[in-house]
Amino acid sequence: MPHLMKTIQNIRPLDTKAMAAAEARQGCLTKPPQALGRLESLSIHLAGITGKARPTFEQKVIAVMAGDHGVVAEGVSAFPAEVTPQMVYNFLAGGAAINVLGRHVGARVVVTDVGVASDLSGAVGVRHKNVRQGTANMAVGPAMTRNEAIRAFEVGIELVEEELANGLDLIATGEMGIGNTTPSSAIIAAFTGLPVARVTGRGTGISEEALDLKIQVIERALAVTFLTRLPLPTKGEIASKDLRASMGWYPLVGLALGAVGFGGYTACRWFFPATVSAALVIIMLELCSGALHLDGLMDTCDGVGSGKPRERMLEIMKDSRVGAMGVFGAVAVILIKVTALAALIPQQSLLPLLGGWAAARAVPVLDVAIFRYAREFGTGGLFAGDMPFWVVLLTMITTATIGWLAGKAPGMLLLFSAIAITLLVQAGISHKLGGLTGDVYGFGVELTEALVLIGGCALATWKFI
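Request: output the structure for the sequence above.
Response:
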């Protein structure tokens, strides 16, 4: 088991007895209740961490973790990556601002090379734990591998363990690396759903033009994840027009997913009842896309179903929490999919799974071509713009071909009917929101899949498939 997982498992809750004792002591002091404000709650919290009602902090450490960021190559910082090792040597010489603060509070500054792009093997006083010499450029691919990320966590864990052996009482953490606020902003935007522009600042004091570039770089980096949820490497910059051009092949991606589902459903029916087999396959297909579209469906149901004004709807859709309408929408769609698929024998599921998942991926192409983007900023906005006619044509031809091969004329009619119904529903949503968002794109994918499965059951009942 990785050191990281062992450490996580060893994390314990705060010591409630020590916290109660610390709070009781606060009540005995000669002062009005809460006179010290945040300091009082902080002291109680520290008691819970240490397990002591009156903790002392003699041995203090400021941990500075140094590393370079490949995204600096995009021009997001006012300084080059070569400044990072210079700052490391400044830390070691005691000349940085953090050294002054450390001396003021009686804390040692411990510098660790986690990923500096320069050779610091000759630097005395550095913890040499370099995982890799600088991350890769996150704007064109994954910044690190999973194993590298885990190892970076473990470097920090090992530092704390080493200092605990030396009697550590309190540790403050920090990091240094040119370009560091760019991945920081990307992580915040990814976790909170907030617009990149809102969580991105000037960092080292960059100009207005450089700030705009920084925001675009972060949005482009997030777009790779938005497209696939897979750590696929890319080469060169990814422009919005390139993203739109790639969308012509989306139905083939859906066809591949449908083929996986068809194979899985056929195999599962040998071992499990129809309902169990259908549930396993639908869950598997959702996981293949990182439940990205299901998340969009839930956010859309929460926002549009709230009945609030437009701006509030958009805010709700950005909220990472799931409300009652979102849960209802997700449960309803999954139940419809499972029930419809369970009603089909494996031979009949060819059209709904292959054709349905292909048609569902054609919907975002038409969304971008027909509707405007509702937000000023947002990951889905990277797809917004003039959709090339050949992309729409390729999407329609591919979808029609798949429908014909899977179910002849009834198959084509089913796929395009499902797409048409979805677009009508999205037109109503667009009227409320003033356009569509990335969440509504995902909503359209989920709705189309469900409609094709329902239609597939109807065609099977009428002996068309």
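The chain has three domains: 1-55, 57-234, 243-461.
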